[in-house]
Structures are given as structure tokens and as C-alpha cells.
Amino acid sequence: MNTQNLLSSLTPKTVLRWLALMMLAIVGTATSAIAQTSPIEGAQYTIMARHSKLMLDVLGRSQSENARVSQYDDQKELGVQQKWIFETEASGQPNAFRIKNFNSGRYLAADLDLLGYGGTQRYISQTALTYANESQVWCLRDAGKGFVRLQSCDSDVLRDFQPVYLDVIGQNIHNKAWLGLYVQTAPGYQQMWKLTAVNVVTSQPIVVGKTILKWELYCQTTCNKEETEEVVTVNGTESTISTETKRSITNSIKGGFEYAGISAEASHEQTDETTNAQSEAKSFSESMGRSTKNIVKFDTDKFNIFTVWQWVAVNQMSDGTTLTVNSRKYSCRPDANPPTYLPGSPDDIQACHILRP
Question: Same structural domain for residues 148 and 242?
Fold first, then answer.
């Protein structure tokens, strides 16, 4: 692409995103690792505002989607809605986490669409886990004396071309005060938070050591099925899957994987490894999040189909087990041999629609 075409393809959103990535990279480089205040994976923490000494809280102990998050102290006991679990996020940003509410299982998030156009975001809420939702990703920045700032790591968002942080608007010291996102201020005590462990996890979490993507035989000859979707199989046995394991699988795919049974030529067609990894991670994340009936039908009488193959991710777990996650991608073959091409390739697109001779 020549310079003129490149410049003409730029949109305001693209330019803003590039500037955001540059600013986040600069901030990440200038900010040292938070060794003393970095949370332990899977442990429960309270998050206390430095200026008010009030806790980050989901009002009314609500477990609902988009329930408001504020600062609060019930002065009686530590509420379950005031406990938060930090989950490491493979976003490429230093000290990046998703922060899950212990009571609801939903994640600290902000609607960031209006930032960068003036005005302060005045609504922080809890939302269901969505790996594509970067507004759920927070980067911990050292604020000194055991405190941290929670920086929004959504690379699409800046305000006045500066990173934004979780902020108690107006330095309000009262219960139920609005939280927002705002640029770093001085001294900025309303942007400083104290993490205090409620419990410490001593056992090591089970994580993915290696992920292999491949085609696996789905059916042969008779391939019309209506069934409850099988989310995963563990060593051949159907199983449910925890949020922590889903996150570990998604992060493993984002970080890189291997193909099995795919031709070298087909593998080399993937020129952008990062984009491909993110696409695969999103696809498998979506399939793990479904629980509805799955209807799969292939006309084996009309089309030249002998076997149908499903695209799967085989995950070798740190406890020695193997966990297979099924996608909703299928391909067809006129014989018993598995495909050697990738999902979405020209060969794949036409594979289930070749008429019988």
C-alpha cells in the first residue's frame, strides 16, 4: 500500500486507537512493576479508597447485569459484595487484570464510548465476562505507600489524549458517591486504592500449558443432529467448565498455539499471527459461553459428504489432563481423511456444498 492510500484509509477512530496504544505503552514503560501491591491470582481482596476509607461496593449486594458500583461502608461487617477477585488478563499490558465481584461473579467495567470527547464518565458497573470487552480490563499502577491506581486499559479510550483512572468524582467522602474515569490528578488521593487480602489462595490454579488446534471427526455418513451443545470434553468425558478455566484457555490461544494436521501451505497463509490468535480466542470463547441446543444438518444425499469434521482446541492442562473445547465450525470431506486446510479458507467454504457426481 502506498503512502497516499495509507493516509486515505485512516479514520478518526483508527488514529485515536493508535494514539491510545502509544500512550498506554509509554505509561507501561514508565511504570515499574508493582511487586509489593500486585494481587495474588484467585485471592479475594477489598479495594479501599484512600481519601474516604470506603470500600468498592456493588450497591444493594445486587447480582444483576449493569448494577452500579460505588464506594460504601455498612459499618457492620464486610459484605460479600465488597470482595473482589483479580484475574490476570493476557492483554499485552503490564499488570493487567479483570476484577470479578465475589458476590455476583460479574466484572468491574465502564461504558467508555464517550471518553475522549470531553466530560467525565459517571457510571461504573458490573457486567458479565466478555473477553472482547476491553472496558473490563484494568492495569494496576503504583501510587506509592502501598496504594495503586486502577487505569482503564481499553486501548480505544483516552481523555484529552491521556490515560484515565478509576476516580471518586468530586473527591466525595460519602457512601454511594459516583465513581468515574478521569485523567491523573495531583495529589489525586481519590484515585488511589488500597488492596487488602481477605483470603490467600495457597494452591496453584490449573492452567493451560499448551493448546493445539485441529479438525476432529464429528460424524460419518449420517450427519443430521439436534443436541444440547457439548461445551468441553475432559479425557473423553463431557464436563462443565469454570470461568477460571475458560479464561486460561482463551489467554492460551491469544498467546499462541500449534496446528495439527494442517498443511504447511495453509499455515503459511496466516500472515498476521496476532490477529489470527485473537480471532480464534474470540471464537472459542463464544462457544464456551453457550448452553443452547445446537442443530447441525448436512445433506449427505445431495452433496458429496462422507465425513464431517469439527474445529477443536485441545488443551494440555497443568494437572496432566487434556481438555478439548469444541467450536461451532465444521467442514466436510468426500472420504475418511481429515481436512488439511484452515476454517474459513476457500476450500473450507465450498467443502459442504459439492454436489454428488
Answer: no
The whole-model pTM stands at 0.54
Least confident of 41-45, 157-161, 221-225: 157-161
As a dihedral over the C-alpha atoms of residue 282, residue 285, residue 290, residue 295, rounded to 10 degrees, the angle is 60
Asked if 325 and 219 sit in the same domain, the reply is yes
Across the strands, what pairs with 239? Answer: 232
pLDDT reported for residue 333: 93
The verdict on 149 and 20 lying in the same domain is yes
Last residue in a domain, options 151, 169, 199: 199
What is the Cα–Cα distance from 77 to 46, expressed in whole angstroms? Answer: 12
Model confidence over 54-73: pLDDT tens digits?
A: 999 998 899 998 898 999 98
- Asked if 70 contacts 176 with a C-beta cutoff of 8 angstroms, the reply is yes
Alpha-carbon 204 to chain mean position: 21
Q: Which domain holds residue 260?
A: 208-351
Of 199, 233, 265, at which residue does a domain stop? 199
Q: What is the pLDDT of residues 223-275, one digit of tens each?
A: 765 444 444 444 444 445 677 778 888 888 888 888 999 998 887 776 677 77
Q: What is the CATH number of the domain that holds 259?
A: 3.30.1750.10
Using CA atoms, how far apart are residues 230 and 340, in angstroms rounded to an integer? 24
Give the integer Cα–Cα distance in Å for 28 and 33: 9
**Average model confidence (pLDDT) across the chain:** 77
Which residues touch 52 (CB under 8 Å, ≥6 apart)?
A: 71, 168, 172, 173, 174, 177, 190
**Secondary structure element (H or E) that encloses residue 314, with its range:** strand 307-317
Q: 138 and 97, same structural domain?
A: yes
Give the DSSP H/E element, type plus range, for residue 126.
Answer: strand 124-127
Domain count, the chain: 2
3-state SS track over 57-120: EEHHHCCCCCCEEEEECCCCCCCHHHCEEEEECCCCCCCEEEEEECCCCCEEEECCCCCCCCCC
Assigned C-alpha cell, 77: 461487617
